[in-house]
## 1
Amino acid sequence: MWQEILPNTWESILSKIRSFGYSQKHAALVPAAALAVGGMLVYWLRSRNKIKTIEMGDGWWGSGERPVKGKEDESIRPFKIETSDKEIEDLHRRLEQARYTPPLEGAAFHYGFNSSYLQKVVAYWRNQFDWRKQVEVLNKYPHFKTTIEGIEIHFIHVKPSYVPHGRAVQPLLMVHGWPGSFYEFYKIIPLLTEPASHGMNEGDVVFEVICPSIPGYGFSEASHKQGFDSIAAARIFHKLMNRLGFKEYYLQGGDWGARITTDMAQMLPQSVKGLHLNLVFIPRRGLGRMISVMLGAYVPWLIGLTREDVRRIYPYVQKNIYDLLRESGYLHIQGTKPDTAGCGVNDSPVGLAAYILEKFSTWTDKSFLQKDDGDLERKYTLDELLTNVMIYWVTASIVPSMRFYKENLSKDPTLALNSRFGVHVPTGIAAFPQELAHTPQVWAKEVYKNIITYSYMPRGGHFAAFEEPRLLAQDIINFVRKVEHL
Ligand SMILES: *[C@@H]1O[C@H](CO)[C@@H](O)[C@H](O)[C@H]1NC(C)=O
Ligand SMILES: CC(=O)N[C@H]1CO[C@H](CO)[C@@H](O)[C@@H]1O
């Protein structure tokens, strides 16, 4: 039957075409047209699979008009942190003049920084903390500055003092976040530049480490123009790496550093050998997500959650919604009117210390909120904590550092990553248990398409490099080793 109908149908189509005035010769074009349509379909499917990248663009963030003539000064200038009697006297005077509001009875850190404990910190700062000595500590690694897009970019660049024969040195860019600084990496640097002599496993991977200050943070000049966001920072850091002569490099980041390095991987994937993160934040939105979170509580395997994921994300509302709300008030202020709150913290070192160090308490461990002194000194020394505060104080960079939130949250208030593009470079994720929110690997895969290592870290929180340098260094080494042997 088919054999009869088909030729008949074909015949009748041809006759219809003919009746429209076409000849049989023209009708032979039909298969050709079909071929063309098919070809277009294949092209469309292939272009859908093509890796989309963030456009690199260009920018200029200096003050006033962009100079029309003349190339930018591309020199790389050695830099040393300096201090003066005047700076220290001014600090001491302000510390002595501080006034405090007594904490509510039994409040610990629930209302924010306990001001009785703050007085102890300030007494240490005024009488024992030695900024001159800390400046020497900071200067033990080589610092540099170079001008990119009209602003001065500060970075440290540490090379291994000795490279065993035949070993390739991997360039690694490490990017900090808020309220941290390049100083967060001081303990991890030697573990990466000289892993074998520090007893790291698989110490055959050797790094040279570049830690820039995000523009507006510490010793990098702040943008003078509105709109300096993570994309601009990503582009500037690519330019920095290229200026240093690197064509391909590894990236590592947490906090804003995770966002900036992710943007870098989406911008120039061909330059990024691998991306290692200790923060992945992919907000869950929409009904589908809600259902999957609900299902996960009962049948986690159905949505790809491991037992450890379940332990870390449930009870969901408490751990993922309430904790985040309580810990993100600062984000709302900085994402809307940073300059107003910034007036106070930029003028008072005591206010600045409370504002910054409260985060080093709760983001290191949420339960530290219950402690009278926020358990600040359990994981860090006061010298370490105050050195980080001083980097903000002496550079007056707290306001520009806060503005970075506004510049990045205006278009997308959820802190979401650029999920439209996906990340296709090899990616390693270190999931620390006390991180603000846990992101299971199945969720991370929505953005990071090529996860090579995903590790449930045994302990540690948001400031991983500062708090658990050995654990983080080992995870970076394991990841890079895998990528190199792919
Ligand atoms: C604040 O911290 C001090 C310890 O530095 C402690 O003695 C005091 O009880 C704490 N106050 C509150 C309200 O938690
Ligand atoms: C204004 C704004 O929201 N800017 C950007 C912040 O960062 C993300 C990606 O990291 C960009 O997509 C936004 O455009």
## 2
Amino acid sequence: MDWSCWSVSLVIVMVIKLQVGKASTEIPPIFVFGDSTTYVGTNNYLPVERARADFPFNGIDYRDAKPTGRFSNGYNIADTIARLFGHKRSPPPFVALLRNQPFFKRNVLWGANFASGGAGLLDFTGRQLKVITIREQVEQFGTVCNNITQVMGESAEKVISNSLIIISIGSNGIFDYLLYNDTHNEEYFITTVMQSYHYHLTNLLNPGARKFGIVSVSPIGCIPRYRVQNPTGECIEERNLYAQKFSIELEGIMQKLSAEFEGMKYSLGNSYEATSYIIDNHLAYGFKDAITACCGLGKIGAESPCLPNVTVCQNRDDFFWWDRYHPSQASCEVLALTLYRGSQKYVKPISFSQLVEDI
Ligand SMILES: *[C@@H]1O[C@H](CO)[C@@H](O)[C@H](O)[C@H]1NC(C)=O
Ligand SMILES: *[C@@H]1O[C@H](CO)[C@@H](O)[C@H](O)[C@H]1NC(C)=O
Ligand SMILES: *[C@@H]1O[C@H](CO)[C@@H](O)[C@H](O)[C@H]1NC(C)=O
């Protein structure tokens, strides 16, 4: 008897079984919420004038150099996270799924992206821009839960509780507050946005969401747009302090909610710590430049947004920053990997990957 051949076929059978098992049980639906950091083109479908990026040089490294709406040369953090969890494509904008009615109910079982560039945690952040506020995004998810129940009946509960909720929001509110409010009262501001975050998370938990991958605010004082305003060229400390405080307070809220809601699991990505580490050690990550925007104009590329009439760098993967506000595709990949299986310093109490494992 030829044992070696037998064992090879046994291994093949096992591999096939594992793959089937993975396809049917381990790839969770993904629902994405937030602002331009996780946004895949919602605003393209809306009468939004300013908060959009569906023109070159955005998308220059995407398939056919297509400007998809993402504020990126290619993919962003939501895309990489979806791929890491086994999705073939990033969940499309919810508004795009709605336009494809015949397939809506089937498509939505894989997830949807509700994020809207320009959105914030407070209702007035982004309202002038006519973007989809986080309140509306959460309402849309409520509708989707109804739709899943229409299709799945009783088993909908399990589908919804196994779904991954990915949220990345908070920077725009801080930008607006520091720009428009003369009294910079950090305590007051952070308390207000945290009440709002708590409220919206509760409205995701109530219809049955239980698994949360949360991305806090990155060191926004270091983005080119603000760094260029500092005569020393350094990061703006006040903005970074708001971001740090945001992460700390959010951890408290997540702990509190997970004690209240049975079965809740969360992974909180400290984008402040993770991004700071990558910027400080950018050479080790393959970035030659962690200061200049690849697409822009003037000093550190930060004197213009990324538009078709500005300059764009040749080697995009060398740059941490894509435009004056957003990280490049290459840096999003590093960030997403850090969230997916990084250490407790960057993602707590478990990593994103552990959200789908039985631990
Ligand atoms: C989804 O649910 C909402 C609210 O329950 C309903 O109005 C809408 O028609 C549903 N969409 C589809 C495609 O079934
Ligand atoms: C500005 O801050 C004060 C308190 O510090 C607050 O009462 C007010 O609502 C804020 N305004 C805006 C637009 O955030
Ligand atoms: C690029 O185009 C925008 C509007 O389309 C305009 O406001 C801006 O001045 C132009 N910049 C340059 C450098 O031509």
